[in-house]
Amino acid sequence: MSTATGTPVFVSVGGDASLATATYTASGATTSTTVTLGDLAASVGSNSTDIATATTNAATALSKANAAQSAANSASTTAASALSVANAAIPATKIGATSGVVGIDSQSRASIPNGAQFGASATNAIAIQFGNGTNAIGSVYQWYYVNGTSNADIGIQFTGGSTADGGQGSIAYSAIQLAPASANVTALGTASSPWSGVVSQTAVQVVSDANDKTVVGTIGASDYTAETTKLRAAWAAISGVVYTLNFRTNKRNHIGVIAQTVQSAFTAQGLDPSDYGLWCSTPKTKQVESTVDGETVYTTEPVYEADGKTQATQQTIRYEELLTLGIFCERLERADLAARVTSLESKSTTTTTTASTTSTTA
Q1: Could you give phi then psi for residue 239, rounded to 5 degrees?
Q2: Fewest CB within 10 A of the end CB: N or C in the chain?
Q3: pLDDT tens-digit profile of 101-123?
Q4: pLDDT digits (tens, 9 = 90+) for 163-186
């Protein structure tokens, strides 16, 4: 067989036809290919089998796809029916209502019915109740720690105020103690947001253990004379004042000191008031409310003086430290007066004795 024109052509046939060869050059190829008629027949047969198998597989896949489409259509119909039933079973009036359901609005806020409770009181480790069932503006949070009774171990009750003004409510707390999770990291109030007042049954305790302190000097000691003299002079320069609070409508008179006066008294003696814990100055800040992407956001921003550049500060006084300074300064004053009186009495006695002796001799 020759392939002068690219198409196989038999030249002669003899013996086993399957051993006859055909040489050809495929269209676009640069080299010729030679195959036997037997191999060519086997390849054609194999291709026919593969085509038949592929056809069968395609038919099977089409059947399964049709079945899946039918199942999907059926599921969609079932889902629509279920949604219809659910909508009928939970009307909009039940969202956020007593014996209703919790609704989530477009801002992911839950609408919880008044009186809703999470947990089963004394049987679960924790039970939290929102609302007290009778007061629409009140709420109670209760924690139960499997105590076997119906009494909560911890309770926090929120009660609304009696006026339309915001911030008129109150919080009642019931537990053995209220303590920070870690020592010396949590403050109660800030210079910019101080508490209005503190009412306590007993005096406030301040940690004063020797193991927690490093003594740098003792007021009145011989090795602390220079500092003692300055502190006594600073204390003597601090005047007590009677004042009213500008933010109070009830103008009751208060007695105390002005932080700036304390600052000036220490500075006048060459002392840096910031080195002493009795005087503090904290940068003022304010909470600003804004709306970002439809959400209410609160940020803390500086408060500036009238120039709009200098951050304002809030000066405060630790009265227990200031008055402690006063106690020891007054003790030294009494000691000095006592020494002077003793000296004067001694001189007076000496003078009297001398005068008496002179008179007797005369």
Answers
A1: -95, 145
A2: C
A3: 777 777 777 766 655 565 555 44
A4: 666 677 788 888 888 888 888 889
- Between residues 302 and 348, the one the model is more confident about: 302
**Strand 295-302 to 285-292 pairing:** antiparallel
For residue 143, what pLDDT is reported?
64
Residue 117's alpha-carbon distances to 99, 110, 140, 142, 195, in angstroms, are: 11, 14, 10, 10, 32
Confirm if 263 and 279 have CB atoms less than 8 A apart.
yes
Q: Which two tokens stand for residue 248?
A: 């109070």
pTM of the model: 0.59
Q: Please state whether 293 falls in left (phi above 0), alpha (psi between -120 and 50) or beta.
A: left
Q: Which of 130, 127, 128, 126 is nearest to 113 (CA)?
A: 130
User: How does pLDDT run across 51-73, given as a tens digit for each residue?
Assistant: 888 888 888 888 898 888 988 88
